[in-house]
């Protein structure tokens, strides 16, 4: 991976993006996890008004939706130009060259999760029904944050369907790419952390990797959120870090809901190792 330019930390929502940011921040701190209150500044979410305002001296609040996208692209370009080293940015949009026109891209870390587990988590995060969340994952060119007013304002983010999102980030460009399956990160965190460190050029030893895995265990993160809260938790949401399990959809989705996701995305799911 190049040492110059932004590194996209990309994922469909509720697929492990924030967890990956926490891991990166902990690696950078030598295996000592920073407080969750500081994580929002590491690999900032490029879709939020707050981050855009920090980069561009133009408030996006009163702009049209298309103008907000252009302002976000300018903020990304400035972020890349100012970066002197590893410059991660969180993104949920599907891949599009217009996300950062003219900005150098050092590489992409793409985190993917079984969409059957994404759906219940996305429903909880978005305060919608499971049927609605499944429909969102299945909708071509689906775009979130299209309203002009929201509790936590963000620019419009075109996700597409779950399959469109995966294909765009894994085959729609020629940038250096690391694909991380959420399930593999759970099963063998040290191996995943070593892959992340190697790809991003972080020089770490085994002790740092093991300390990072322990500090970033889901239970430890959730305990801190329970004690101190977390800024990215949505209004009315009990927890941002809910379960941290794979396969939990089996006790949540109906047969029809699970079948609908497989019907829309089975080809891509199968290519990533997810079974019917």
Features:
6 strands; Rossmann fold; 276 residues; 12 helices; 4-stranded parallel sheet; two-stranded antiparallel sheet; globular
Any overview of this molecule?
With 276 residues, the protein is α/β, with parallel strands linked by helices. The protein has a single domain (6-271), classed as Rossmann fold, CATH 3.40.50.300. 46% of the residues lie in helices and 10% in strands. It has 12 helices and 6 strands. The protein has helices spanning 17-28, 36-39, 49-55, 65-82, 115-126, 130-138, 162-171, 182-187, 189-200, 206-215, 218-228, 255-271, and strands at residues 6-11, 87-91, 105-112, 143-144, 157-158, 177-181. The strands form 2 sheets. It has a 4-stranded parallel sheet, sandwiched between helices. It has a two-stranded antiparallel ribbon with strand order 4-5. Helix 7 (162-171) packs parallel to helix 12 (255-271) and helix 9 crosses helix 10 (206-215). The radius of gyration is 18 Å and the shape is globular. It starts with 5 loop residues before the first strand and ends in a 5-residue tail after the last helix. The model has no long low-confidence stretch (mean pLDDT 86).
């Amino acid at each position: 991976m190049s040492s110059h330019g932004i590194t996209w930390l990309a994922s469909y929502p509720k697929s492990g993006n924030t967890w990956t940011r926490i891991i990166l921040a902990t690696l950078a701190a030598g295996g000592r996890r920073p407080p969750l209150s500081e994580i929002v500044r590491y690999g900032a979410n490029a879709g939020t008004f707050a981050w855009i305002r920090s980069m561009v001296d133009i408030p996006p609040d009163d702009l049209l939706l298309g103008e907000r996208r252009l302002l976000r692209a300018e903020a990304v370009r400035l972020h890349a130009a100012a970066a002197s080293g590893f410059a991660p940015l969180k993104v949920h949009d599907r891949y599009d060259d217009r996300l950062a026109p003219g900005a150098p891209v050092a590489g992409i870390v793409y985190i993917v999760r079984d969409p059957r587990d994404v759906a219940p988590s996305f429903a909880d995060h978005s305060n919608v029904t499971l049927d609605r969340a499944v429909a969102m994952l299945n909708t071509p060119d689906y775009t979130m944050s299209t309203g002009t007013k929201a509790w936590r304002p963000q620019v419009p983010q075109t996700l597409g369907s779950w399959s469109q999102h995966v294909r765009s980030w894994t085959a729609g460009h020629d940038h250096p790419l690391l694909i991380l399956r959420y399930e593999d990160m759970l099963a063998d965190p040290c191996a995943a952390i070593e892959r992340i460190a190697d790809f991003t050029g972080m020089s770490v030893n085994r002790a740092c990797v093991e300390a990072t895995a322990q500090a970033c265990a889901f239970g430890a993160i959730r305990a801190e959120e329970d004690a101190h809260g977390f800024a990215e938790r949505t209004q009315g949401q009990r927890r941002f870090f809910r379960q941290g399990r794979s396969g939990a959809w089996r006790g949540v989705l109906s047969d029809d809901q699970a079948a609908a996701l497989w019907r829309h995305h089975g080809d891509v799911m199968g290519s990533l190792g997810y079974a019917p």
